[in-house]
């Protein structure tokens, strides 16, 4: 079922969902099941599975020289989605990214997804490789999420890349990323907003936000969206703090601000256990406010570790 239908059927009740990343190459699918099982009691109508671009590794050749090889550390996004649907009968939402895929590979992925009965996709540009300073598009691939949306919309209309005739049609419900604190490459919030609007005008039917810790940022973002005629559901993405180092790491990696009171509290913490306790309490408060506001879904970035999300969900649902 489409995410938009799940939200409509909930009649204003806030739903619970979460996001997983594929296991590191070599781990079994059990890693995924162990990350899902503890959260089933909260009836997630959908589970997202991220897609991570290939990075480089260096392999020594017979002549002793090092060769740069593209290496995908966490493959399996589509297969994991299929496994989730098969085992749990819960909708799985694969993230489709531009980086690391040619247009033909994207088309093949869309064909696989339709054959598997997957109704939703999250269309993203994708992160830069760790080995690169900034995002470098793949040769023959898409550059921006907008290009990917155009591709999926064409695919929905039965238009394939190298076929002149119309073939079978699809009906993917497309989600996109939104940044209450702006995407770090955009010169300002308005410039970023222009592209968010473009993504929705092109056919995106829901937005999932980057994590944020100050609800006012989300409230302002939703207001600005509505004022600009962006009327699709805006799903807040949430990441509870679980370690001391996240105080510095999360702002650096995700280009977000932590509110003063949370920084003050975390600065007093003497161990990861204390930081986690503070992070959990702060997230419960944040979630209760978001429910009060009428957020359609609370979407947790679990990174495959369900325990803290479970504690939070037990306190709020
Ligand atoms: P875009 O919407 O393409 O925007 C990228 C930048 O370019 C922005 O600064 C924007 O303002 C600008 N821009 C947009 N369109 C245009 C245009 N047409 N012309 C010129 N400039 C433009 N990353 C992964 O690698 N894998 C994942 O699974 C993943 N999941 C995510 C899930 C969520 C909910 C979120 C919020 C992020 C996720 N990311 C993921 C991270 C995301 O890929 C990065 O933040 C990436 O840098 C931007 O992706 P985007 O889809 O927002 O890009």
Topology:
Layout: H1 3-9, E1 15-20, H2 30-36, E2 46-49, E3 55-60, E4 66-71, H3 77-88, E5 91-97, H4 103-115, E6 120-124, H5 145-156, E7 173-178, H6 189-201, E8 206-209, H7 215-227, E9 234-235, E10 237-238, H8 246-254, H9 260-268, H10 272-293, E11 297-301, H11 307-316
Helix pairs in contact: 10-11
Bound molecules: flavin-adenine dinucleotide.
Flavin-adenine dinucleotide binds at residues 50-53, 95, 97, 124-127, 144-146, 177, 183, 185-186, 192, 195, 208, 210, 237.
The string of secondary-structure elements, in order, is HEHEEEHEHEHEHEHEEHHHEH
| CA-atom Rg in angstroms | 20 Å
CATH class: Alpha Beta
Identify the CATH architecture: Alpha-Beta Barrel
Number of domains: 1
Rounded mean pLDDT score: 96
Gap between N and C termini: 23 Å
Percent in strands: 15-25%
Individual helix count: 11
Specify the structural class: alpha/beta
GO molecular function: FAD binding; methylenetetrahydrofolate reductase (NADH) activity
Family: Belongs to the methylenetetrahydrofolate reductase family.
Catalytic activity: (6S)-5-methyl-5,6,7,8-tetrahydrofolate + NAD(+) = (6R)-5,10-methylene-5,6,7,8-tetrahydrofolate + NADH + H(+)
Cofactor: FAD
